[in-house]
What we know:
Layout: E1 3-7, H1 11-22, E2 26-30, H2 34-41, H3 52-60, E3 64-67, E4 78-81, H4 96-108, E5 114-117, H5 125-138, E6 143-146, E7 165-169, H6 172-182, E8 189-191, H7 195-226, H8 230-237, H9 261-271, H10 277-287, H11 289-299, E9 309-313, H12 329-338, E10 342-346, E11 352-353, E12 356-357, E13 366-369, H13 378-381, E14 386-389, E15 398-399
Parallel strand pairs: 1-2, 1-4, 2-3, 4-5, 5-6, 7-8, 9-10, 9-13, 13-14, 14-15
Antiparallel strand pairs: 6-7, 11-12
Helix pairs in contact: 4-5, 7-9, 7-10, 11-12
Amino acid sequence: MSRVGVIGQGYVGLALAAEAANSGHIVVGYDIDSHLISELKQGISRIEDVPGSTLVKLIKSNRYLPTNEGSSLNSCEIVIIAVPTPLTKDQKPDLNFLQAAVETISKFIKSEILIINESTSYPGTLRKFIAENIFNKSGIKHKYAAAPERIDPGNKNWTIYNTTRIVSGLDHTATREAVNFYLTFTNSVVTVSTPEVAEMSKLVENSFRQVNIAFVNELAQIANVFGVSIHEVLQAANTKPHGFMKFTPGAGVGGHCIPIDPIYLSFESKRKGIESSLIDRANIVNQSMPSYIVSRILADHSNNLKDKRIVVIGVAYKSNVADIRESPAFDIIKLLLKANAKVVWHDPVVKNILDQDSQEIDNQDIAVVITLHDSIKIEKLKKIKYVFDCTGNLTWATNL
């Protein structure tokens, strides 16, 4: 077993650190967020996939060492980069967190180790951005591999252990060592010819979902014009045993992967002179869904929501997970407020955002269901006169 550093202790990094530590590795969990590290040291977890009790056990056994001291990485034999790769305000790849990881490695790692990038980015990131920058800053020729993360927060069926890992190193040694590392806690590893193939495969996975979600979101609008239920249409189409894969419409797309990864692919494609018109169109369709939903609600209320008491149900981007990243709920809230409605939100899983607490379902005039957690009390929703359901689960409500 190895001493492993994981840079970034969010949804990806903490889950990875816990899994590696559980398998017997000594894991240094590094993050620049001192408040987060303080919580982790107390056994407080912000993510559902890693219970606080697991952290306490791993910390007591000295197999998980949370820290914001970059020097703690110096003794590691493997360092994994698991930092966010978001978008800038003008919808371009933001590699600032990745650059900070490069700076940390260059400053504190003094001998050759294996560096693995799990952060999602465009093809060529490992070779051109990470490896070249670290070498230029430190003069050390490390071993490098790409192993893009495939974590689905809250998914109990597909975990780090049983989700196939795609791995490729810049050379055979890096590939072999990375494969051997992941096989200590993952039951399936597939190698590909280059890191660029691994990096692009992650972008393709989520671009596939983005495009197909956009397709059914557009179909939902078409079905509404025809006066038929898109959910019944999709259910009927899904009876075909071949040539069809069911996706469902919704309020948009959220989380780190689907709203962001396709833009990384589109951005780098354009830099190389290739248009990605289908991906770009899918982004536009999904980003426009909050406007479409509010337009439907307005149309059902004579285009007047002034002083209407509206509760938005579920601000997390997926069911039973307290993850609000890129959730379309916030765009819907802004649009409803712009229409002069009185808006509150209810989410028993998220509970609090920036000192704003989840409010109760209290016989408001309108409810807009974005995400339906298991803990949401449906009987309270049924008391509200008008419910617009973006999930398709409430057959008695107004649906997409």
